[in-house]
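If you are new to this repository, start here. Below is one unmodified record pulled from the training split, so you can see the exact layout before writing a loader.
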Amino acid sequence: MAAEAQPLSSLAWLVEAGADEAMGDAPVDRFIVGKPGPAIQASVKKPMMSPTPRREEPKAEADSIGTAIELARASNSLAELKAALESFDGCALKRFATNTVFADGNPLSRIMFIGEAPGRDEDRLGLPFVGRAGKLLDKMLAAIHLDRTKAYITNVINWRPPDNRDPSPEEAAMCLPFLRRHIELVNPEVIVLLGAVAVRHVMGKSDGIMKTRGRWLGYNVEARMVPVMPTLHPAYLLRQPAHKKLAWRDLQTVEQKIVSLHLLERLVAEG
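And here is the target side for that same chain:
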């Protein structure tokens, strides 16, 4: 006990004697102006600095979006746009996807349906709406005298998100330049948006689909406003079959627009 107390007693005696600085073994000339000597430098610890936040990922995202915009603008046909998408590696979703899902149907119909993202079957076959939701979409088209020879179908996202989750804003931002160019090249007369994700990214509206469905909106294509009808996604209707009546009302409104624009007659005449 006495041995342990001796260092403390010595330290207390030094403090009472006025010692307030620890000295090194090497003498230090206090009159030298400049950097401290090696002994002083070694005894002073540099303060811990928090690591500088990395800026590489945001820069990489911005670079990828810029590349997407350039590739999309340079595409002068649907074939060129599809090839540009297949060569684009800026979206992380592509790394886990089997196929790039571009579109299906007849672009000459001028009736464009835009969904959210590919699912498992779509990823496997490389075509949009070929699974259970796709079979329901075919029935919805047939209800208003359409099929895949009379309509054109694509998605906001061209690669399947893992576990069919909603795409992140960053993932959507990588695909939107291609989608906007896609719409310009198709130059539709009517657009039908399937589900909340499509409405959010095409129209920039974050309201729920129940608030936006059934009302005509407008999308600017080459200084021309194209009528846009938001409605319920077929996958949602498979989970909530009671809401099929709401989708049926929306589709009837779409059919009235198609008839008023004589789109089917024009398709037959041009075909």
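Two things worth knowing about this chain: The chain is about 50% helix and 10% strand. The chain has one domain: 61-270.
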